[in-house]
Amino acid sequence: MKSNFLLLVFLFFLLFASCSKYLAEKSSSQLVIPQSLSDLQALMDFTSSTDASDPSALAISSDEYYLSDNDFSALSSDYDKRKYEWDSSNLFEPATGDWYNCYKLVYIANTVISDIGNIKEEPGNSADWENVAGQAYFYRGKSFYNIASIWCKSFDSSTMKTDLGIPLRLNPDFNTPSVRSTLGETYKQLLTDLKQSAVYLPVTPIHPMRPSKGASYGMLARIYLFMRDYPDALKYADSALAINNNLIDMNTLDSSKAYPIPQFNTETIYYSSISIPAILNISRAKIDTAIYNLFESGDLRKELFFRRNADGTFGFRGNYTASLSLFGGIPVDEMLLIHSEATLRLGNISDALADLNRLLKSRWKSSVPYSSITSTDSKTILSKILLERRKELLMRGLWWQDVKRLNKEGYNISLHRLHMGQTIILQPDAKQFVLPIPEDIIQLTGMQQND
Amino acid sequence: MFTIVVTVLISTTLSGQQMNQSNISLNVSNAPIDEVFSIIEKQTGCRFIYDGDILKKANKVNISVSDRPLNTVLQLLFSEEPFPYTLKKDMIIIGGSNASGTLIQQRKIKGVVLDKDDHSLIAGATIMLNGQIRAITNTYGEFDIAIYKQDSILTISSVGFETYKINMNALKSSDIQIFLDRKPATLDSVEVVSNGYMVIPKERSTGSFDFISQNLFQHQSGMDILSRLESIASGVVVDKATSTGGLMIRGLSTINGPKDPLIVVDNFPYDGDIANINPNDVESITILKDAAAASIWGAKAGNGVIVITTKKGKFNEAPKVSFNSFLQTSAEPDLSYIKQINTSDFIDVEKYLFNNGFYNSNINSPGVPVISPVVELLQKQKMGQISETEANNEIDALRGLDVRNQFEKYMYRRSFNQQYALSFQGGTDKLNWITSIGVDKQIGNLNEINNRNNIHFNVNYKPLQNLEIGACIYYTEYKTSTGRPGYGGVMTNNFQTMPYAQFTDRNGNPSPLYKQYAQGYKDTAGNGKLLDWNYYPLEDYKHNYGNNEVLDNTISLNIKYKLPIGVSASLLYQHERQKTDNKQLYDSQSYYARNLVNYYTQVNGNGSLSYPIPVGGILDHNTISMLSNDIRFQVNYDKNWHSSSLNLLTGYELRRQGTDNYRNRYYGYQTDIATVGNVNYTGSYPDYIDGNSVQVPMLDNINFSQTNFISYFANGAFTFLKKYVVSFSARRDASNLFGLNTNDEWNPFWSLGTTWKLSDEKFYHIGFLPYLNVKATYGYSGNIDPSMSAVTTIFYLPNNTFYNVPAARFDNIYNPDLRWETSRMTNFSVEFKTKNNVLNGTIEYYRKEGKDLFGYAPLDYTTGVGTSILKNAADMKGSGWDIRLIATPINQTLKWTITGNISNYQDKVTQNYLRDLDGYNYVAKDGNTLFGVPGNAVIGIYAYKWGGLDPDNGDPVGYLNGEKSKDYATITTSGTSVYDLKYYGSAQPTWFGSVINNFQYKRWELEWSILFKFGYYFHRSSINYYKLFNQWIGNSDFSKRWQKPGDEKTTDVPSMVYPEPQARSDFYAGSEALVDKGDHIRLKYVNLLYRLPLKKKRFIDFYINGADLGIIWKANHNGIDPDYNLGLFSVKPAPTYTFGIRFNY
To answer: pLDDT by residue (tens digit) across B659-691?
Structure first.
């Protein structure tokens, strides 16, 4: 009996001897300290943080749609109502929303960029390594741009050293205080990130939700256009189109479907979406009849883009998401329009017209003869292109940015709403074109508010 | 106890030997003979037996002898007396039949000694006659003695019990049963307390223990253990007022860490669900309250420890059978307690909103969200489909309805619980055993079913003098299934049910309730090709049921070997496996399954249908299997000197617990043939209703987790002169949890304590307090939160649904400064007992300081890691009194005992490193937020300052920068700092406790417990127009709203306006106008017991118990029971009545 007992004691000590291994065991199978490329990739494949992070503020603030007074009153979010009314404070609910989502994506990118530095790039992993790094740079650059588009003035090289930029968070350490950079620094950083991503990313991604070279080029083209840097806009639109130049022939679409344009369609170079708040729901947001009337009768989009409500109003259903969500990714149509405009502004009228006609033809009913736009007046063509931007890129959160850049060029576009029996006008020089940073962020960081 | 018995045995043996040899010295003159008898009795230990009358003839004695043998002295003595004597063994019989014919009246008495509480037999009790030990009870509690007429007082005593005296003249029977009262637990000098590592005599303990005996514990009935503690234990409060509350021992020790006390069953922390344990298997519960008591549990003991000791057999114990059974029932709850808006008011609100066009976007939405029957009628009227009169008639017919009646009629019913527990136990000198079987069947108010079966087996074997081996098996089978939906459980979508909803049509047949989509749409969708899209509340629960089955096996072994030098070594091992199998089935008839199938139905070009979600039921299956292994090696050293002792204990343990979790969803499940369908998770489909691109929900998941602990511990006590005790305790823990820096992996916790038995000092002369003991302890315990981390970790999720690759999210963020929380506690206590034990009690004062408490510090979310981060954010201080008093004002045939537990607890935040001072974080909206302002209670009640109602329009008025303001958006966000709020005080009771009155009269026992909670505040809910409009949640305060100028003088309820800014509702919900005092007194239970004695020492107890009998007094005037105030839908349970039988023999 006694010897048995001693044996037990001995066994117990034996168990104890492997103590360090015992304490090093993983406490959950799914819990991991991110170390490998696949861990970092998995963080960026969690689509709820990467896909749906496109901001909605500019779509809400835009005057492409309107609400009936009843629908406005019935809305529950005071914050979105204030965005709609172009108020100048309390536009963002504390601790959530666009600021939160955009910077969350920045954090994922920063973690990947910081951790991938510990992984050696070798011939065996080079493709994966560059793909992962490229995605991170893309997400950071894209988020920085999205943030700047809401909370900063339109880029202007003459004032970029004094205009306020955004806080450029470049590492995952949350103890680093957030400080606003200048607009020049902001654009320098986001362009650098996106250009870096273009170097690393593959031409063909496994899925359009994964960033690719085309996505980087497309994003750069979009940004350079809004920066009014037309040579660069042309260069990157050209690169993007070199990878994907497909257009949907809208004659092939079935207008009886609730959302006729399919998801992940052939024009989608890169897919991301704007998850929309109640205010933009198709049951409330009505497209201005003036915009609807811009579409000619031979234009397929007149039917495919709009849902005719019982009361004669129109809702927008032309989303490349095939759902209520608005599209925020990089499509061929936008690239073509950028290409067209930039070409034109650089003096190449015929190429500009070719782009424009190619796009429009794909939107034109095959039963109705399409008459190509022909003109030799670049001003006329430019206005055609800009009109087409308004129509083709409707409800993609881009109109607000077009207004901001075009007003820099003296277009003097003001925004209008008929609201509660009154017309409210946002004048071209209104400070509300730069949205106020969430008040709680100002309190937490002490950074400077937009004025 | 053992030592005492041995001593007594030895001394009786000695007295027998002395008899033959002892010599006598006597020197008396003219003394009464009985005086001389007693001197001789004292010197020899022998006894004189005689008839009292005989001595009347006796002469006075004159005798002087020195050191003479007994025989000689007796001859000398009786030579002068008129009666003879006989010497038999140690008895000197005077008179005697052969001498005078006056036969000595001798009676044989057979007796049995039992424990009054549980009727267990008491072995080793001492039976004394007139101060002389005559017998010791055997293992069956029995004794036989012969008594003689002059023996007048029979005294029965046993360690741990009150001494019992009987006047023999009053004794008629020769077969007697004697019931001994246990000595009061708190002060019993031999009472032992267990901390899970050892059993310590209470006398030697320095820490704060609360011991709950089985007797007190079993005065409440039910399936669970912990809920009984609040009304009987000291310093324990169940916080029902805050959503984060629960059972707390001595208040909070943490702000955001885990708040549950550690639960130890026998030797090891219980990893299973505590509901597995049958209360009938509980022998006693010890609550460890201070650092000295709890620090041996180290990092897990910060919130206190509850040690549950299960029943064990005893060596040398007669076989015993116990049985307990009860039937318990409670009526359906009173739904009128719910402050639901008046139906007619609700309809008026709907009309008002309709006229404002509030429903237009829903009516026109392609998503066809549900609209209520009233709105549907109004719309029909607007479209000219029905006339105004028709519409009004139909609407007015709804005004008298109340959905609460529907719930009362169709959903709730009387609950029935049955419990049966049977146990056998016994023991010889080498082996003891207990085995028990428990069966519980519970059918709740909503027909939900809880069935539990327990089997418990425990055996201890002593193969050798120094070796003891024990084994225990505890098997539990616990099945629960869901029943009908309760109030709040029938939803129309994200909305509450409208107050006029009906579950049947006029003929009493189940009728559809408008749910999720517009009824008009459902009626026509698919032209009959789709599955029925209606929701029938009275049918649906039959097709929508959850079953949960828990199997738990706990096996433990222990081996203890004693070495002669005072050292004993023990090895303990426990293996627990708990398997939980949860099935939620939505069968093909359930709304849930029909709705999903319909929603995903695809119409093909040729009009045929295809089903991405196959037609059939949906089964969610989740199995969790938990395996834990604990092994502990422990060495004890005990050394006793004349009046001092040293007791040391040290050891270490390994603990390994793993959980495997599998979750699966099966679509297209056919119940009868158990087949499942196929789905494509990565495909996107346009939904049937408005063509949005959607994917089939994927719920499959697998997760394995493993926690390992290594701990070292030591504990010691030195007792000096039986008056002074010094103790210490220390422990270090290490674990494999992520993020504990190497330094923190080994985290020491320690304590010191001392006891001084003041009443044993020579200078102590307080006559009315014969017992006085003071104690003091100091020490640390900790709180470990497994989720804290000092490295960045990510968590893998099921594959990305679009392109089927692994996806992960951040789980913890690199947080290098994170440290473990520590809790430092100082405890002082005084134990006292007045003369005759009329009053005894314990008064304890403690202070505790929590350092480095976890807090979610608001974070600049520009950082991207969220809006708050776990930090060691605050320090707190708490202090309080725990007073337990037991008074016995009457102790005759009627015995009246009052037990009072009075606790005071106050805490405050001393440091708060959170820089966020925004007021809205502190104001309760729906629950209570845990935040601290230095100087205020850790969980405090804060409210927006209230400026009354605007006399012109009934708007609520608040304050902004000290000025009256109606800028609600700013007041409820950045405009109000925490210092602008009104602070009321603690959200938790600062004074609480219970008073238990117990009356015993002959065979009857009556006991009731009154619970009180004082000194705290709560936010009550009122009408929230935002929720009324958007979620159909209406409060009856609506009828008190401001409607015309002048109303502001009589009401605080704001007017209804449209549109209602959410901030206006938020402001009122968080304002001073809705803060009430929580103070209340409630009758917790009443217990009446009748003890029926049967022949052959058997008894049956019959008992009736009433529990949750309601509030006796409350401070608030709004009809709110503060314990049932979590939102509008808190249903208050009806009283529970129990009828039971218990017997032991």
So the answer is: 999 999 999 999 888 899 999 998 889 999 988
Show residues of chain B in contact with A207, CB under 8 Å: 802-803
What digits encode the pLDDT tens for the residues B101-156?
444 456 677 888 887 766 677 877 888 877 777 777 876 778 888 776 665 678 88
Q: How far apart are CA B5 and CA A183, in angstroms?
A: 91
Query: CA separation (Å) from B788 to A25, A426, B792, B870, B938?
Result: 17, 49, 10, 8, 21
Q: By mean pLDDT, which of A297-306, B167-176, B691-700, B1083-1092 is the weakest?
A: B167-176
Reported as a pLDDT band with limits 50, 70 and 90, residue A388 is very high
- The answer to whether A39 contacts B686, with C-beta atoms less than 8 Å apart, is no
> CA dist A375 to A314, A381, A391, Å?
32, 7, 20
Do B1138 and B1102 touch, CB atoms closer than 8 A? no
DSSP single-letter state for residue B979: G
Cα–Cα distance between B558 and A326 in angstroms, integer? 67
Distance CA B577, CA B703 (A): 17
Q: Which residues of chain A have a CB within 8 Å of the CB of B656? A: 22
Q: Which fold has domain A2-252+326-445?
A: 1.25.40
Does B1059 sit behind a cis peptide bond, omega within 30 degrees of 0 on the bond before it? Answer: yes
Q: Alpha-carbon distance A202 to A223, whole Å?
A: 21
Of B360, B654, B861, the CB nearest to A15: B654
Taken in order A432, A438, A440, A441, the sign of the CA dihedral is: negative
- Kindly report the nearest CA distance between residue B311 and chain A, in angstroms: 26
CA angle B1090, B1095, B1098 (to 5 degrees): 55
The answer to whether residues B261 and B270 touch, using CB atoms and an 8 Å cutoff, is: no
Q: With an 8 Å Cβ cutoff, are A309 and B802 in contact?
A: no
Q: Which two tokens stand for residue A414?
A: 């003001």
| Residue B805: how many other CB atoms lie within 10 Å | 14
Domain extents in chain A: 2-252+326-445
Termini Cα distance of chain B: 24
* Residue B107 in tokens: 């009676």
Candidate from A9, A76, A311 with C-beta closest to B1062: A76
| SS3 (DSSP) at A294 | coil
Complex-level ipTM: 0.90
- Cβ contact A45–B800 (<8 Å): yes
Q: Which of residues 360-419 of A touch B (CB under 8 A)?
A: none
**Nearest CB to B686; choose among A1, A16, A258:** A258
CA gap A142, A193 in Å, rounded: 9
Strands B164-167 and B153-157: antiparallel
Contact between B766 and B735 under an 8 Å Cβ cutoff? The reply is no
Of A45, A284, A310, the CB nearest to B805: A45
Quote the tokens at residue B369: 């969200």
Q: Helical H runs in A246-367? A: 289-292, 301-304, 332-345, 349-362
Residue A254's alpha-carbon distances to A139, A323, A358, B600, B1009, in angstroms, are 34, 15, 21, 19, 74
- In this structure, which amino acid lies at residue A333? D
- pTM for the model: 0.81
For residue A118, the chain B residues in CB contact (below 8 A) are none
Per the listing, tokens 């502001």 go with: B1048
Angstrom CA distances, B770 to B201, B760, B762, B838, stand at: 20, 9, 12, 12
Closest Cα partner for B401 from B497, B485, B535?
B497
Read off the tokens for A66: 């309107």
CA B1097 to CA A282: how far, in whole Å?
83
Residue A74 in contact with partner chain B when CB distance is under 8 A:
yes
